[in-house]
Amino acid sequence: MTFGIESGLLDLLKVEGGYSNNPADKGGETNHGITIAVARANGYTGAMKDLPVSVAKEIYRKVYFTAPGFDKVASVNPEVAGELFDTGVNMGPATAAGFLQTALNALNRGGQDYPDISPKGPVCGPQTIAALTKYIKVRGADGITVLLTALNVLQGARYLEIATNSPKQETFVYGWLKNRVATS
């Protein structure tokens, strides 16, 4: 799979669907996967039912791809960037960045390949990009597969934790695992 932001947006919009106002969804009103809070924070003042796809795409590009540095990750490896983008949309970009940092730390063989980096997000900055670049240089194509698996494991575990801590969220777990983890 090769990820590009435009194709990623099309795939994402298929998963996210249209307008929703599910009382169990902590995000409240959403359209095209954009919550009302995120829409308002990015200058959209209209009714959520009327949120244009073009506005949703621009928010996704700005908030969930460029701001957290996933565009820089894409320049190193598009597949990893695609995984982070999708995870960031559903769990927040800082969580996705933290997953990458955590996985890279666990895969650096005790610091032999590159130094540990702070696994706190909120963005993929120069240290994260350097660690990812070195990881790929050392581990190659198989390393990408392993890294993507690690990211999916972290994501799936987080979904189960969310449902355990908030049983109302159980209504979403099957779809999260099916559409966000099993297909990645």
From TrEMBL:
Residues 12-92 form the TtsA-like Glycoside hydrolase family domain. InterPro entries: Lysozyme-like_dom_sf (IPR023346), Peptidoglycan-bd_3 (IPR018537), TtsA-like_GH18_dom (IPR008565). Transmembrane segments: none annotated. Residues 99-181 form the Peptidoglycan binding domain. CDD domains: N-acetylmuramidase_GH108. It holds the Pfam family Glyco_hydro_108. It comes from the Bacteria. This is Uncharacterized protein.
